[in-house]
Amino acid sequence: MQATSKKEGNTLEITIKESSAEMEKYKKEAIHIMAGERQFPGFRKGDEVPFDVVAREIGEERIMQEALNQALQVLYPKALKKLEITPVDMGEIKSVTSISPLEVVLTVEVTPEVKLDIKKIEKITVDVSVVAVPDEELQKELDEIITRSTHYHPRGAHHGHHHDENGDVAETDLAIQSGDKVIVNAAGYDKKGGETDDRMKLTDFEVTIGANMMIPGFEEALIGAKEGDVVEFEVTFPKDYHSEDFAGKNAFFVVTVLSAQYPHKPEWNEELIERVWGKKLSFSDFKTEYRESMILDRTEKARSEAEEKLTDELIKANPVEVGDKMVAREIENLWLYHNREIEKQGMDLKTYLEHLKTTEDIFKKEHLEPVAKKRVQSMLIMEALKKHYAPDIADDVVVAEIRKVFARYAHNADFETRVLELSKPGTEHFNDVKSRLEYRMVIDRFLK
Predict the structure, then answer these.
(1) Is pLDDT at 298 greater than 60 in this prediction?
(2) Which among 382, 375, 374 is positioned nearest to 436, based on CA atoms?
(3) C or N: which end of the chain has fewer Cβ atoms within 10 Å?
(4) Cβ(39)–Cβ(70) below 8 Å
(5) In which band, very low, low, confident or very high, does the pLDDT at 163 lie, cut at 50, 70 and 90?
């Protein structure tokens, strides 16, 4: 076999040649394979059919095409190894001059060679924002935890309510208040006594009073009502309402209150802290740890934003032309990730695309392709920089990083065992963490 290559950008043209004598072997192999796939007149299935009978029944052209397929399965990998080529994807046949003797040209995309302009690159610096967590922002987070931990009781059915002189639940405790969750049925009309509009119809619909999720005036109109009440009121849709059919227009609603529940907010204690944080702490110690966690999250976000800016600067200073197949592969990776995120939100792909008024192909082209191209360029430049600077990360630094990550997210009895298993040098996880630390060391050269 002879194999030569010619480079054009990120594509190689590989020419493979093989003698007629060798191709005759592939022809016989092709005949043998095709003979086993069908039954021939005068022969039982499984019989050894003479080559001339197979050739006559199947045709020379089909046999030679199969011979080419068989030959390339063997010769293409050999050519790649001989020419020391690592392809991005499968090669494609560009032309076939002849099959016997074989002369075929294939095109294959390869990873582009990155030539670093180190002088220009080393002038790049990117500032990392300094982060802090003021008391009011910490309090806002703590209030949100309380809101998420809040549970609800039916109005009038809890021992904490006030009772009147007859022992009945006081009217004030039956009446809907801000913060309550109510279930309603609602019918909407263009005006009082007017025509119903099914687009405004609500059935078994949950409304949180004061959440401002409904049009202005809707939630407020239910305050003071009780379970079973029918409430009638007029509202005006905002001028900037998302539907032009309703924007700025009046509507009349008839709402039936099916049920009402009031919120029961928990108090900060060791039990609540253990439930939300995974361990028992005093409220003071919990606030300290939670603030530290917020600072860490914000620090990571600030670094991520700085790394994004660095990526832009590196690509600008050291442009890299990437091939279509590398970008296409990254687009598919992004698409799969995007699909998983959509599913987590309880939405199917078809509904999501319909909501955006687009198609899969257009979404990939307009939204994912630019991101994919940038990620591939960044990956190639960072890999070249890692080779240039050759950062040295000691094994004990890798182990410490693994322990730090697990200490943040793992709070169970198997913690030490899992850390020891993943901290062994040479394991996949160990090598992955080491590689990420090497990249981080390179990136640190440009951040301040």
Answers:
(1) yes
(2) 382
(3) C
(4) no
(5) very low
CA-to-CA separations, 79 to 17, 25, 342, 431, in angstroms, rounded: 10, 19, 43, 31
Domain ranges of the chain: 2-109, 151-264, 320-385, 391-448
pLDDT value, residue 249: 94
Residue 269, SS3 per DSSP: coil
Q: What is the pLDDT of residues 13-44, one digit of tens each?
A: 999 999 999 999 998 888 888 777 666 676 76
* Nearest of 237, 234, 253 to residue 245 by alpha carbon: 237
Q: Is the pLDDT of residue 328 over 60?
A: yes
Contacts for 169-176 with beta carbons within 8 Å, 24 or more apart? 171/226, 174/226, 174/227, 174/260, 175/223, 175/224, 175/225, 175/226, 176/209, 176/222, 176/223, 176/224, 176/225, 176/226, 176/257, 176/260
Burial-class residue 426 by CB neighbours within 10 Å (0-12, 13-18, 19+).
Answer: exposed
Residues 6+ apart with CB under 8 A from 260: 154, 155, 174, 176, 180, 181, 182, 183, 225, 226, 227
Residue type, 319: P
CATH of domain 151-264: 3.10.50.40
> Is the pTM of the predicted complex or chain greater than 0.90?
no
2-109: CATH topology is Alpha-Beta Plaits (3.30.70)
